[in-house]
Request: fold
Amino acid sequence: MNELKQNAFLKLNASLPKGRSGNSASHSPWVVRQVALETQQNAFYESVLGSSYWYFMKIESDFVVSQ
Reply:
């Protein structure tokens, strides 16, 4: 769990734009909440599915099956 928290912190820190002072205190609370939500969802999936990653892809097509 410590690794998960560290990854969340690094992701949050990297995603926040730096102001003139070089810190990230001036950006939107929405960005912070969004990254926190993504991190929380990732933690849930990792706890349910294990540490391996699963990828899902939706492929849209105009193909129609006629009967």
About this structure: Helices lie at 2-15, 29-49. The radius of gyration is 18 Å. The chain is about 50% helix and 0% strand. Residues 20-24 have pLDDT under 50 and may be disordered.
